[in-house]
Amino acid sequence: MSAALCRAVLFLALVSSSLAIVIKATNPRPLVLWHGLGDSHSSPGMLQFMDMIKDMHPGIFIHSVYIDPDLENDKKAGFYGNVDEQVAFVSEQLAEIPELEDGFDAIGFSQGGQFLRAYVERYNFPPVNNLITFGSQHMGISDIPACGRFDILCQISRRAAKGAVYSEWAQTNLVQAQYFRDPRNYGAYLEANRFLTSINNERPDSRNATYVKNFASLNKLVLVLFSKDKTVIPPESSWFGSEAIPGDDATSREFYNGESLQQERLSDEKVIIPMRLQPLYLEDWIGLRELDERGDVIFETCEGEHMDIRDCWKPLVQKFAGEQL
Questions:
Q1: What span, in angstroms and rounded, lies between the C-alpha atoms of 79 and 57?
Q2: Distance (Å, rounded) from C-alpha 205 to C-alpha 219?
């Protein structure tokens, strides 16, 4: 081989190597989305949202989680199914995607947020870097949206639904029942519920240290609340707040040391226990306190009703997703 040819080959090798480095350096961290109730993995709204993120972060790989590839069946799976089995299915799905093997950021819409948190706590392989949840029910829902004053049929149906929510069938087949946390029936919730009590490590005899380790491994947890949310009751569940358990004076003395709870009164009957006064936080059952004390829990508010997202998402996705690797 002539000297000139050797120099040409060496030059091409150096250019190729440099180009590979540049391409790698401008590769955004992948993103995973989990849609909310009544939506599907590739609905027009989800596809539009993904396109807007791709415009914001050119070259980003985005995967939208599905329970069923068929759009209508995927939508139904948001209402009916076993959430534990769904999260396990998604963990296998994500593990099989080569683009995600080094980790990813994640965005959960409404119930998709607590489902992604369940993935982080239980599996987290591949690992989540930043988790953003919009209007999610991290402390469950404590009520079903109210009926009109004179809508008797609605009121009867509402009472029937609440009365059956902790049946074995509901807790393994109705998705929303699996994060229904009724403070007026807290004992039944602890006994019957399998999903929310698990990911919140609420049962003293079955707390899982892996959940703590995995959740605390997040880089950032971004919790987004909708200011006029009437769908999530209470809306503070999006910030790990929950309705107080009526008459639970012993709990107050044990966990709050007689100090003022600084509860936010929603009505004459309901008060909210904020995140930093939750037993879950004070005893750090899931690693939330560790995250917060590091400064890695970010509270954000979107003005409007539930999932009225408008442009509220843009600065959050700009800052907490699509980091160049």
A1: 32
A2: 29
DSSP label of 228: T
3-state secondary structure of 224: strand
Strand 220-226 versus strand 297-302 pairing type:
parallel
Rounded Cα–Cα distance for residues 13 and 9 (Å): 6
Contact 81, 8 (CB under 8 A): no
Q: What span, in angstroms and rounded, lies between the C-alpha atoms of 142 and 232?
A: 9
Catalytic residues: 110, 229, 306
Give 262's pLDDT tier (boundaries 50, 70, 90): very low
Instruction: Compute the distance between CA of residue 251 and CA of residue 160 in angstroms, rounded to an integer.
Output: 30
Closest CA to 215 of 95, 122, 321: 122
Pairing of β 104-109 and β 62-64: unpaired
Per residue in 72-117, pLDDT tens?
999 999 989 999 999 999 999 999 999 999 999 999 999 999 999 9
Classified as helix, coil or strand, 231 is coil
- At 220 the three-state DSSP class reads strand
pLDDT in tens, 2-51: 555 555 445 555 545 544 444 445 699 999 999 999 999 999 999 999 99
Among positive and negative, which fits the CA dihedral 276, 279, 280, 281? positive
